[in-house]
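Exam revision sheet. Question 4 asks you to relate a sequence to its structure. Input first:
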Amino acid sequence: MENKTLLHICKVLSVDDDQHGLRIKVRIPSLDDPETPVDELPYAFPLMPKHLHVNPKKDECVLVIFQDAGVSDGNRFFVGPVISQPQNLKFDPYNYTATTMLNGWQLKAMKDPDMNPDTKGTLPEREDVAIEGRDNADLILKENEVRLRCGFKTNDYGSFGDSLTFNKDDLAYIQMKYSKMKDSNGNAYSSVINVVADRINLLSHDSRTDFKLNDPEKLITEQELKRITENAHPVAYGDELVELLKKIVHVLLNHTHSFPMNVPCQQTSLENINYDAILSKSIKIN
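Answer key, structure tokens:
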């Protein structure tokens, strides 16, 4: 009988596209000859707009849609990759777990990650709007809040089926919030941006300290990052710097001489200051 199915669940056989259309190749068992080489199969075109760059990997699962049912050489379109559960964002193979959430497939899904209290904070909440990366980065839009995160899982590389334990130690994130708030002095404010990481570099292309910030692949290479760490200028703790300046001004205004033309009398308030402690070891500029 002629196959009238419009939608097929398929395994990705190739992601090579010499015209960079992000097309893939699959084999439809009921339509494609099993002897046809992969490179001779028709392309399937992505339905995802090019503005959103999300593409399946070889051996993952996609949903293939035909323009005309039963026409093997007609236009093929695909949606995917099909990812069964958040544990498998990095790679969800067709022959193993990708189809576990679909009716009629025998393999069982993995345990719900929400049942583990250590995963709290790792995944977006159901009402959030989010873009999740393959490994360990995401963008979450909450109510009056934006979170851009990296390294929020304890496993840095997000391997297949890994734990989604929340990283409480050294994740990097930018948090933007808008809400009516007041500080301890009663001053009202509405917006705040928090930038959090082990090391924070505030760098400019137009600066007296020149660093290479435009590598085509990495933006900042590991070698250049080491150079930045060693040569960028530490930011001073403003409140401690002000205290030091107050002491210096006090000494200048109140110093005395035992006799005319002698050096000023010793000022104990400036003797034991640790000047290096005024400089931040974590925030640097160029």
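Marking note for examiners. The radius of gyration is 29 Å.
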